[in-house]
Amino acid sequence: MRKLVRNKRAVKQSTKKAANRAVKQPMEQAMRVEKRKVLLHVNREEHELLIYPHRTLAEVLRNELQLTGTKQSCSEGACGTCTILLDGIPVRSCLLLAADAEGKEITTIEGLAQNGKLHPIQEAFVDHYAIQCGFCTPGMILTAKALLDKNPHPTEEEIRNAISGNICRCTGYAKIVEAIKAASEMAR
Amino acid sequence: MTQYSLVGKDMKRVDAIAKATGQALFTADLALPRMLYGKALRSPYPHARILGIDTSRAVKLPGVKAVVTGHDSSDEKWGVFRYTQDQRFLSIDKVRYIGEEIAAVAAVDEDTASEALGLIKVEYEELPAIFSVDDALKPDAPIIHENYQGNINIHVKIDVGDVEKGFKESYLVREDTFDAPEESYFQAEPYAVVAQFDNAGNLEIWMPNGGPHLKAKPLANVFKMPLNKVRVRKITIGGAFGGRSEISPADVMCALLARKSQRPVKIVYTREENTIATRQAHGMKATIRTGVDREGRVQARDVTCYMDGGAYSSTGPIATSVPFLCMEQAYRMENVRYNGYRVFTNKPIRGMYRCHGRAFACGVDLQIDMLGEELGIDPVTMRLRNARQPGDYTPTKSYVGSCGMTETIVKSAEAARWKERWGKLPPFHGIGIGCNSVQTGFPMGIRGGSEAFIKFNEDGGITVISGVVDNGQGNETMLVQIAAEELGLKPEDVQLISADTEVTPSDPGSYSMVSTFVGGNAVRLAAQDAKQKLFVLAAKALEAKPEDLIAKDRKIMVKGEPERSLSLTRAVRLGLSKGQSISGQGAYWPKVDSRREWVENPVGQLSEAFSFGTTIVEVGVDPETGQVKVLEAWAAQDVGYALNPKIIESQFEGGLAMGGQGGMLTEYHILDRGRVLNPTQLEYKLPLACDMPKINNIIVETFDPNGPYGAKEAGMSIAMSAAQAYSAAICNAIGTYIHEFPITPDKILKAIEEKSKREGK
Question: Which residues 28-87 of A have a C-beta within 8 angstroms of B?
Fold first, then answer.
């Protein structure tokens, strides 16, 4: 027996993603969602942007501000790669709407080095071989910064717990933990 | 070995600052003027005939600039070998797995492209589908590829010595079957491609790759273009682990869209697409029969292995062979038989993976422990008695020059205080050992060699040009280190141009663990070539013989008389003043048996060198929850020579995390009728920082006679032996053996319960 099927939406591996799109596009067109003015403070600079309200902070940082140091790996909050600091707190920028970041100070990896000098955590990552492919590195460094700002001399366990929301596939984390420890000792 | 200035020492990675500051550009970070965004339409069915594709509505959607289907492409099919070319880049007649590419759209933004996909009408006729190897092999099973009757894609058959006689003469024989489902790479970077054509018809393309030249050739085939018009560009790559070595339909779709729209196009895969539509690692069932004498020496071994290959051939013949080859390299055996079957199913395509076949590797090692237990011999002694030795030939006739298998066992056992721990640990604590060996390169025919060029600038600085690619493992640092060492320069005097097919000469790529051996040797030879020219010039000026000169500290000096010296800059300028510019050329071709073929003739020199690794881990198991806590790990590998010890340690640590911690505890895919239910990091559990044990790295050096400075493959023997050590340690902790991997808490609790029942508790 021949079963003929007409497909409407063929991309179905992710029901979640498909559902997102299914909701998002008709909304933009049928409901005529309009772009909105959003004021973002990023790395000590002010940016006035005209964006759709459903744009995530990760998308806006990457596509509107060309701050591509913020990487996207899972885009659903599971891997920590897109971590940025929001008023000093590590946040997954793929889960945050850009509009919701208004009025807060956003720090991306590009905002860490100052006047051409690496931040001590960046320096420690370089010196302690904590970087391999480098894709998780920006999120990892920012998470480490938030930890050390709050707890300048963490134990190894505190370091491991703090970065346990940032997945690294290359290093097995050993050298990353060493680097963060070294950065905390540099500050002593 | 202290005569070197840079080599053998920790040298900081040349790419680290760019990566730490966010300046390093990955493919998805690229933005070109007028660039469009591409999306792929994928099959929702595991097995179906395509009756028609109607793109007319999608084309009319405002913002859509191009729609392509298989009819826009040539008939070229992909497969690593001529006899395995079975995958069209965009299917026109049939789809064989959920996620297979059918069409692609380029539009002004991703949302518009996605919307256009929904407007493409595809008419399918669903076909009965196959989701397991067992079902694929049934006599009345549906056929997935017409030219592969019985759904057997590849059969690798190896039979050495007299296996039956070996079993007959054995004191003890065991047969066990081990099983493991498919797993995935989860490179941090999801797959992405950017492509554009210029007015002269040159294709310029960026994507993560395991070797740019191995992307360029199939692209040239599909687009019927000469190779010098296909420019695979250098770009930072976010991990590979074997999963970036083949051409991807995304490369072809992106280039087709760029050609049709006459604009640059970018495709960025979602995490789900990266899991489903790049490659996965094979699911595998291995039946292993081993006979040993009273002392535990292997007399005969017979392995039959069924691998779930998914919908297409991919690297089939290689993937079917490598698990066996790793074992035959690691352990001595005179009589051995292997039947490896790679079977088609309607599941995502399986390719090469850093931990080749955990069911095979862990099965072989667990069985050694079982046999040892029956004989009253401990696991370390069992391995020492069977360990590969230098000067041996493997069963399939590869000569093993340098070999530190025994040394890795001895050193890791000493460091782990094995004798004090084995059999003496508290209840539900265990210790386990695994041994393995990995190739330094595969026979790759005309693409097996690497060439490098070096040019001197008038200020004494150099540019190195090499086809070697860096996926994150540190290859670029290795090349700079070697060039600077040979020429007496500082790392900052060296600029590297690499992995760009327009500029860099041919190279076999990184995925056969050969970059240091072949690419490193080529750069070393190029540097020596340039150095020789400089020495001839300097010899006159220094009134010495060229053979008495050395290059060190940016100078050329007479050996033993550092005051008789000339700066490199002066030497270069001296050359220029005489109308002679200084450059160097070097090429290295691995000495392998070119007649060796994976299926037809699996005999002869496979690789020029082999690495050997041993991992030991200690674990604690919670008998109430089945949770495993890994307490400490010891990783020892014979790397030939440690060019950059810290980078090698990083490979050990990453390998242990992937092969052991992930591969043996948490990682596997769950599929329902061909649909992957855990395609993202949310449900597929990767190791986290808080999970990892303390890792003790033990670098063993055997100075391979042909490797650059004695170096060979570094790190992968750990990834594989770690899986074996983890499984052995857990089984030791619970006092019974588990035959299915990964060893998740449910399996542990079931095994403990069954053991209690057996013992009448």
Answer: 28-29, 62, 66-79, 81
Q: Which residues pair with B611 in a beta bridge?
A: B438
Decide: helix, strand or coil at residue B473.
coil
Which residue ranges form the domains of chain B, and what is each CATH number? Answer: 16-23+445-588 (3.30.365.10), 33-127+188-239+244-277 (3.90.1170.50), 354-443+605-758 (3.30.365.10)
Chain A residues whose beta carbon lies within 8 Å of the beta carbon of residue B119: none
Structure tokens at A6: 């007409």
Q: Can you give the residue ranges of every domain in chain A? A: 34-111, 120-186
CA proximity to B628, closest of B748, B753, B752, B720: B748
**Burial status of residue A19 (CB atoms within 10 A of its CB: 0-12, 13-18, 19 or more):** exposed
Q: Which residue from B25, B102, B650 is facing A132, i.e. has the nearest CB?
A: B650
CATH number of this structure's domain A34-111, picked from the four choices 3.40.980.10, 3.40.50.720, 3.10.560.10, 3.10.20.30: 3.10.20.30
Determine which helix (DSSP H) or strand (DSSP E) holds A161, and give its type and residue range.
helix A156-162
The distance from CA B708 to its chain's CA centroid, rounded to whole angstroms, is 21
Nearest Cα neighbor of B320 from B299, B301, B303 is: B303
- Alpha-carbon distance of B47 to B42, in angstroms, equals 12
What CATH class does A120-186 carry?
mainly alpha
pTM for the model stands at: 0.95
| Joined tokens for residue B555 | 């100078």
Q: What percent of chain A has pLDDT over 90?
A: 80
Question: Across the interface, do B686 and A72 touch by the CB < 8 Å criterion?
Answer: no
Name which of A4, A110, A135 is nearest B188 (Cβ-Cβ). Answer: A135
DSSP reduced 3-state for B491: helix
Mean pLDDT throughout B267-293? 98
Q: For the complex shown, is ipTM > 0.95? A: yes
- Render B364-430 in DSSP notation, one character per residue: HHHHHHHHHHHHT--HHHHHHHHB--TT-B-TT--B--S--HHHHHHHHHHHTTHHHHTTTSPTTEE
**Are B456 and B754 spatial neighbours (Cβ–Cβ below 8 Å)?**
no
Q: Do B21 and A70 touch (CB under 8 A)?
A: no
Q: Please give, one letter per residue, the 3-state secondary structure of B654-708.
A: HHHHHHHHHHHHHCCCCEECCEECCCCCCCCCCCCHHHCCEEEEEEEECCCCCCH
Rg (CA), chain A: 20
Q: SS3 for B156?
A: strand
Inform me whether the pLDDT recorded for B402 exceeds 50.
yes
Q: What type of residue sits at position A25?
A: Q
Residues of A in contact with B658 (CB under 8 A): 169, 172
Query: Closest Cα partner for B412 from B130, B718, B667?
Result: B718
The residue with greater pLDDT, A20 or B318, is B318
